Amino acid sequence: MPRRSDALDRATPEAIAAAALRLLDEAGPAALSFRALAEALEVSHATVQRRCTDLAGLLDLCTDHLAARLPEVPAGTGWAEAAEIRFGALYRLLAAHPGLLALRGARPWLGRNLLARLVEPAIADALAAGMTATGAMTAYRRLYLFTLGSAAFVDHRDPAAATDASRAALAALDPAAFPALAGHVAALLPPLTDHEVYYGGLRQLIAAHDPAARP
């Protein structure tokens, strides 16, 4: 039987994903490379590449690694409550890793863990609640896009920096050309980084699709 490589034992998919997320969180998207990961894991560049082939494969490892942390909602939970639990958890995961979001861009999130922890149970619960398959996917898609966009819009790990950047941009506006923006800077800034903007919007979307709320 061929002997397993010690390097491959160290560079497991889980170890690679965890190291990549640390690099992204601590140094930003520009710091992520196979060479940097190889140094962090004390393996060769080729070993890391053998595990994930290319950047797209590496990002898939990272997103599926995170998706494994999504909660399993107890059976019998109402559709609306289950949807808030699942998508709220997804929002918190994504908002905690803005570097990963920046690199993923428009790539689909279709790893096994995401499908098993979010997509499949969300669709199954919607069908059990009385939605059609088309209605279930429509509700899921709206909740997913709203969650992804809300997490990606601002670096929630550093709300002060996001607020300062927005304040500087608004302060540079000509009040004559932009009276609404330039005239209400203090009131416009807090909602930019307020998580309740997301949670309130999430509940509104859920209520709009909730079969239990219909006559």
Keywords:
70% helix, 215 residues, flat, mainly alpha
Give a verbal description of the structure.
The protein is an all-alpha fold. The chain has 14 helices and no strands. The chain has helices at residues 6-10, 13-27, 34-41, 45-52, 55-67, 79-95, 98-104, 112-128, 133-152, 159-171, 179-182, 185-188, 190-193, 195-209. The radius of gyration is 21 Å and the shape is flat.
What is this structure, in a nutshell?
With 215 residues, this protein is mainly alpha-helical.
Classification by helices and strands: mainly alpha
Biggest sheet features: none
Radius of gyration: 21 Å
SSE sequence, one letter per element:
HHHHHHHHHHHHHH
Q: Segments where pLDDT lies below 50 for 5+ residues?
A: none
Strand content: under 5%
Number of helices: 14
User: What would you call the quaternary organization?
Assistant: single chain
Gross morphology is: flat
Distance between the termini: 66 Å
Give a count of the beta strands, DSSP E runs of length 2 or more: 0
- Mean model confidence by pLDDT: 89
Q: What is the helical fraction, as a range of percent?
A: 55-70%
Give me the secondary-structure topology.
Elements: H1 6-10, H2 13-27, H3 34-41, H4 45-52, H5 55-67, H6 79-95, H7 98-104, H8 112-128, H9 133-152, H10 159-171, H11 179-182, H12 185-188, H13 190-193, H14 195-209
